[in-house]
Amino acid sequence: MTLVRERRHQQALRLALPPPSPSTDRKQRTHLPALSPATSPDSPCIENLSELEKLAVLGHGNGGTVYKVCHKKTSLVYALKVLRFNHNAIANRQQAAREAEILKLVDSPYIIRCHGVLDNGLMDEDSGGDLCFLMEYMEEGSLHDMLRARQRLPEQVIASVARRVLQGLEYLHGMQIVHRDIKPSNLLINGRGEVKIADFGVSDVVAGTCETCDSYMGTCAYMSPERFDPERWGRDGSDGFAGDVWSLGVVVLQCHMGRFPLIGPGQRPDWTTLMCVISFGERLDMPETASAEFQSFVSACLEKDWRKRATVAELLHHPFVDTSYCSSAEDLIDYVLHG
Questions:
Q1: What pLDDT does 31 receive?
Q2: Block mean pLDDT (10 aa), the chain, length 339
Q3: Is 81 annotated as a binding residue?
Q4: How far apart are CA 170 and CA 183, in angstroms?
Q5: Of the CATH numbers 3.40.50.11060, 1.10.3860.10, 1.10.510.10, 3.40.30.10, which one belongs to the domain with range 143-338?
Q6: Which CATH number fits domain 29-136: 3.90.180.10, 3.30.200.20, 2.10.109.10, 3.10.50.40?
Q7: What pLDDT does residue 4 have?
Q8: CB 3.0–4.6 Å: which of 25, 150, 253, 267 could bond 261 by disulfide?
Q9: Quick count: other Cβ atoms within 10 Å of Cβ 227?
Q10: From CA 25, how far away is CA 18, in angstroms rounded?
Q11: Domain map of the chain by residue range?
């Protein structure tokens, strides 16, 4: 495997992805691009995976495994996301190609940095193979890890996380990218108290309307009503961005309650239960222990009709995420380390 470097092009976003062929009597081929989105001096010059030493498994998800790795020459630590393909996983390869293209384009302090993509070249229906994303390492883990350790978070910490995620979504939506899988395990924290959006495995680029967001890609528990039940809530005219706002609202409420908030403590988050709650359920009652600002913010995110849901731009001006209320990065990391 080799790492091929390209210059970043911040031009109009265009993805050249081959559509799946309906034919079954010939080989279908998907090119997985070899690229490096990073142009900063701290990006490693790696030509082979043998230059990396695996230190630990960080997690699993979206058909892959994430490892903590060390670059043997420099001793720098990175996260390596490895996607493994079965011989018939054409759709998965195409989504991986889309993820690689998205990672090539994004450059924001609120988005996890990808230093490069390593692949084994052309993949077709007769070959498997790996696609590896060399990512920056976020040493304090994820928001999911923080919730598992602390159960519930103070409002000022939640506000700080929410503001940083909103800034990341503002950047992504400005690039016409919908994330589609905002959840605690995809929000990572580093030793400087920075929160960054990670995992673009089910993300997509939209233009006008969200034509490719109809599939149940992502995590159902955090899906918005219009994604879960488009017939009832309507998708015509939706660009998909409102779905990211809904997911953030669920995350924020989860941070306050210390558990997944849309169902009761004894309920299982299976598809049928989630459908009933997300599509047909009444508006959620806000926790009495929460401030008025918190309740207003979450209510604006969890408006079932996406046309009435607050936008990222509107939420960035909400009192709940005002910088005078949010924890600073130093306070956030102090909380992560010491509680």
A1: 44
A2: 36 32 36 42 69 90 84 92 72 77 90 82 53 90 92 92 97 94 94 92 69 54 86 69 95 94 85 86 84 96 94 96 80 75
A3: yes
A4: 17
A5: 1.10.510.10
A6: 3.30.200.20
A7: 35
A8: 253
A9: 27
A10: 17
A11: 29-136, 143-338
Question: Is residue 93 within 8 Å of residue 126, measured between CB atoms?
Answer: no
Q: Which one of 119, 126, 181, 204 is the catalytic residue?
A: 181
Residues 244 and 180: beta-carbon distance below 8 Å: yes
Going from the C-alpha of 101 to that of each of 9, 58, 191, 281, 323, the distances in angstroms are 11, 24, 28, 38, 33
> pLDDT value at position 270?
84
| Burial state string for 76-101 with b = 16 or more CB within 10 A and e = fewer than 16 | eebbbbbbebeeebbebbbbbbbbbb
Whether 143-338 and 29-136 are alike in CATH topology: the answer is no
- Does 124 qualify as catalytic in the annotation? no
Q: Cα separation of 77 and 68, whole Å? A: 7
Q: 103 exposed, middle or buried (CB, 10 Å; 0-12, 13-18, 19+)?
A: buried
Q: Is the pTM of this model over 0.85?
A: no
Q: What is the 3-state secondary structure (H, E, C) of the chain?
A: CECCCCCCCCCCCCCCCCCCCCCCCCCCEEECCCECCCCCCCCCCCCCHHHEEEEEEEEEECCEEEEEEEECCCCCEEEEEEEEECCCCHHHHHHHHHHHHHHHHCCCCCECCEEEEEECCEEECCCCEEEEEEEECCCCCEHHHHHHHHCCCCHHHHHHHHHHHHHHHHHHHHCCEECCCCCHHHEEECCCCCEEECCCCCCEECECECCCCCCCCCCHHHCCHHHHCHHHHCCCCCCCHHHHHHHHHHHHHHHHHCCCCCCCCCCCCCHHHHHHHHHHCCCCCCCCCCCHHHHHHHHHHCCCCCCCCCCHHHHCCCHHHCCCCCCCHHHHHHHHHHC
